[in-house]
Amino acid sequence: MKSIEELKAIKERALKEISIRENENKVRIVVGMATCGIAAGAKGVMSAFIEELNKRNIQDVTVSMTGCIGICRHEPIAEVYEANGEKTTYIKLDAEKARRIVAEHIVNQQPVIEFTIGAAEK
Amino acid sequence: MVCRSHILICNGTGCVASKSPEIMAKLNEHLAANGIEKEVKIVKTGCFGLCEKGPIMVIYPEGATYCHVSPDDVEEIVNEHLVKGRIVKRLLLGDKDAEDVAKSLENVGFFARQQRVALRNCGVINPENIDEYIARDGYAALAKAVTEMTPQQVIDEIKKSGLRGRGGAGFPTGLKWQFAAQEVNDQKYVCCNADEGDPGAFMDRSVLEGDPHTVLEAMAIAGYAIGSNQGYIYVRAEYPIAVQRLKIAIDQAREYGLLGKNIFGTNFSFDVDIRLGAGAFVCGEETALMTSIEGKRGEPRTRPPFPAVKGLWEKPTILNNVETYANIPMILLKGAEWFASIGTEKSKGTKVFAVGGNINNTGLVEIPMGTTLREVIYDIGGGIPKGKAFKAAQTGGPSGGCIPAQHLDTPIDYDNLIALGSMMGSGGLIVMDEDNCMVDIAKFFLEFTVDESCGKCPPCRIGTKRMHEILERITEGKGEEGDIEKLETLAESIKQGALCGLGQTAPNPVLSTLRYFRDEYEAHVKEKRCPAGVCKAMLNFSIIPEKCKGCSLCAKKCPVGAISGEIKKPYVIDTAKCIKCGVCMDSCKFAAIEKK
Lengths: 122, 596
Known about the structure:
The complex is a heterodimer. Chain A is an alpha+beta fold. Chain A has helices at 4-18, 35-40, 42-55, 95-107, 117-120, and strands at 27-32, 61-66, 78-81, 87-90. Chain A is built from 5 helices and 4 strands; from the N terminus they run αβααβββαα. A 4-stranded mixed β-sheet of chain A has the order 2-1-3-4. By secondary structure, chain B is of the alpha/beta class. Chain B folds into 5 domains: 5-107, Glutaredoxin (3-Layer(aba) Sandwich); 130-340, Rossmann fold, CATH 3.40.50.11540; 350-433, Ubiquitin-like (UB roll); 438-526, de novo design (two linked rop proteins), CATH 1.20.1440.230; 540-595, Alpha-Beta Plaits (2-Layer Sandwich), CATH 3.30.70. A 5-stranded mixed β-sheet of chain B has the order 10-9-13-11-12. In chain B, β6 (230-236), α12 and β7 form a beta-alpha-beta unit. The interface between A and B is medium-sized, with 33 and 37 residues.
């Protein structure tokens, strides 16, 4: 270790790894992973969320799973919870849509209206 | 790779003993079976502190804390929590019916009242991964010290913080460093006392197991402050997990150049080596510890000269305890004012206690100095099991004393404990309830000192032996008039005459129990009665005829055939045959057996 910069670089890298263990209010992406969700392809959707967040180096968003949300015909479903508790429900997702949600909703804070349950049930 | 979920599982000695390695193996197996082994990371951590509820497992991002996890629970945890996202409520710590995880922990006073400084990383990071330590500001204090501060500024900061030694005596740490820094010598040493000999104390072990790098970092800071390039950690060989993690930590720190030559590109060089102790209590005494590091028989010597002047190999040396070191990086990072704002007027910061004995939440707690004993025992410790009454708390191990119920509201700090006739010691806290005999407790601790006395000086070698003999007599119902006074005379002589701190404090358990529970001693000596019903020689078991239904269960259970009688008529115990084991009393369904 020859400089403080080296130490800081290691810290940045490692912090990314363990930031998941902070119990703060963060943005959460929750993917429905009950039988209905898995059968409709939720697994690939969740992987796409994780990969895209990793690729973009986003640390303050967690991805977790939940059971059946109750609207199985709309699976795969993911819900984005803002830090203030507000929720957006996205339906009939695939990997490509998941990546767009990360880009538009998470990064640019513009919910992708066309994928939401509100748009589908109009 | 960032994982969607982290499973933290305690790998402290306590949880390892209750099968956490087996749980990890099963986790790996079931994660792989579900094809999610790449999304979920298993992290082995140090002690969470709640050893009584172990093995402890915490799953993030939900922060679900599972307790008493067994290898058989793993499949359910993986299938429910990790695959389907459903919390396994029956394993949750705290309120199992809460709506969510955060609410389940709301009423767990164990964590809420603690303030973690020395234990800040225990149970949070993987102790075998230096990167996780660095992520939590690890080695930033060392970087700050060697690149921005002069050695004197480091010492001044530690002095200003008011930090006192956590190993027992409470000597101001900054002052100790100042003395060693003032010495002019071509070689100085920094030593770490990880000998932790008090029965019941295990905070040093937990820091080494859960956060070994903090000790290395602090030792390097100390080396910079006093002008030393070599450190030694003296740790007992009975702590295999701690030794193993220290070795890994030292290797990683050397690889990163955080130990070794020209640290952070400066002229400062420092390295650390481990020396194993064989577990002798006396080797926790500073002069005996250094004699042992030199490869000689671990015996104390007279002071002065103090180690800061002539220590290891007659060179200026500082010796601090593990927990003391664990506070150092935080003081440099957050500032002396921050540290001094915690605690009482003369005792700053926090203190870790290893809480054991008759208490619900056995484990490690870190509290601000000045917290009362009542808060520790009832709010954090969860009170006494089976609703029994609190009798006394023993602090300071074999050098300390007992604090009775009337002093439960005394704020805990160095000076208050001394005033009560006990001491902080390394922070063992053993809780005793109404069923403990105080004479027996004093005898237990004295037996420990008799065994562990190194034998160099007669007051300790012979004096404690004689005291122990008197106590044995008293507990066997053979106490004589004048025994109590003899104990007091001996105790005073040993205090004045013994060579080292261990001998000088050895009579404390007897003196403090005499101070608060003299009536119990007198009952033993004069009435040949043990009020708590512990000392067997003075007990007699008998059957109360009115309550006995004549079921014959006790007669069947009695291992020596001392109980006889006819079915459906009251039975009797032959006291000549009875070995006072108490099996009859435990087996009787009608509470018809009494001991007096």
